[in-house]
Amino acid sequence: MARIKIIPPETFNFTTTVPVRITDINYGGHLGNDALLSIIHEARLQFLKNYGYSEIDIEGKSIIMADVAIVYRGEIFYGDTLRIDIAVNDFGRMNCDLIYRISNGESEKIVAYAKTGIVFFDYNARKPVSVPDKFRERFEQ
Predict the structure, then answer these.
(1) Which of 30, 32, 34, 61 is the most exposed, having the fewest neighbouring CB atoms within 10 Å of its CB?
(2) Does residue 9 sit within a domain?
(3) pLDDT in the model for residue 140
(4) CATH number of the domain that residue 65 is part of
(5) With bands split at pLDDT 50, 70 and 90, how would you rate the model's confidence at 136?
(6) Which of 41, 34, 52 lies closest to 16 in space, CA to CA?
(7) In whole angstroms, what is the distance from residue 107 CA to residue 113 CA?
């Protein structure tokens, strides 16, 4: 079976922490995959806010998520606080990826990697647009 591989960059642009709530836990007693997707969404919003952006205003453009991948490396439990490091990479003309390194904030053990493919989007015209130059310059390495 082919496995998804997420190769983390050497440096990350932002770090935040998010606590695991009881509502994030599934019947197996650990973090549900749907909950982790919500947690990385929260981390993405904190990342954007840190730079003065929102999902509907990044240098006058909006974003839409085109794809997501999550690779688990350990279990996450109620009461854990997750440390989420975020990097922006793999720029295209209208898109980029956000890479998330998720670790247990206490033990520092990496428990997952995730990637969201982001497309810059004009909601009025309902079509993709170019990555704003200032955003690209800020994060392109």
Answers:
(1) 34
(2) no
(3) 87
(4) 3.10.129.10
(5) very high
(6) 41
(7) 16
* pLDDT tens digit sequence for 8-42: 999 999 999 999 999 999 999 999 999 999 999 99
Q: How many domains does the chain have?
A: 1
Strand partners, 67: 117
pLDDT digits over 52-66, tens only?
Answer: 999 999 999 999 999
Collapsed DSSP state (helix, strand, coil) of residue 94: coil
- Take residue 75 and report the two structure tokens written for it: 């279990």
Domain membership of residue 123 as a residue range: 14-139
Which two tokens mark 133? 């130059």
pTM for the structure as a whole = 0.95
Residue where the block lists tokens 């053990």: 109
- Residue 63 CA to residue 54 CA, distance in Å, equals 9
Task: Please check whether residue 50 lies inside any domain of the structure.
Answer: yes
